[in-house]
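User: Teach me something about this protein's shape.
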Amino acid sequence: MRPPAESIGNLAVIVGAIALLIFVAVEGALVYVVWRYRASRTTTPALFEGHTRLEIAWTAIPALTLVVVFALMLGTLGEIGAALEPGMRVRAVGHQWWWEFTYGDVVTANEMHIPVGTAVEVDLLSADVNHSFWVPELGGKIDMIPGQTNHVRLLARRAGVYEGQCAEFCGVEHAWMRIRVVAEPADEFARWLAAQAAPAAAAATDGERVFMANTCVSCHAIRGTPATGRAGPDLTHVGARATIGAGVLPQGVADLREWLADPQRYKPGSLMPRVPLSGADLDAVAAYLAALR
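Assistant: First, the predicted structure itself:
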């Protein structure tokens, strides 16, 4: 069974080839007529009034073309909907403007990991407004609607990073609601999942103290600590992710510090407020979060 994205891609190539042939035929006929009956020639164009065969032909050919394309689309839809028996299930929730991924008891954000060669059933939900889950190389685009659960199946044939995007306008920071899917061999995925299931390593640093003493704990969870907020992304292993803020900044202590100092500068309209911290406290919290791997 082919991955859904591969079936959709093959259909796009075939329909594109048909469209190209039609374009070449029509433009070729147009160029020929312009040249054949140009002003410098005295040939009078033929008139086809009442030409039944010609009228039937130019009606039947487009109709048959549409029938062929429709049949190809039905075949692709059937292939996508056919039994791609899922080997695992992931719950994905769209928020303004970030992603929450749940693997059983494991919760992470913005970066989704899947094993290569395993069909993954993704249950899609929205926590606020309409979103749309789309990773073009892995599967079709499926809307996420408040109060409704939709589903999509993903299958990666090779290891690598697959970039995706929310494809339904969901507010001012819609463009910075990116998805990063990491496909890896089954043993590497198992190690990643086991690491994600573990609580945060005991830190007892100034950064942890500052984090726990401020409003951070009201919005974010760090398993193994008193922080149990659910309004924002789970930060238990945030340092292991490649980006910050669903793609708005790369991961790193310096970028984390910039983000913490003024989230609205990088993602205006996001629900994360600017917490008034001193420079030393910002440095400490950024180092603490970067170490959560």
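Now, about its shape. The mean pLDDT is 88. The longest helix spans residues 4-36. If you'd like, I can walk through any region in more detail.
User: That's plenty for now, thanks!
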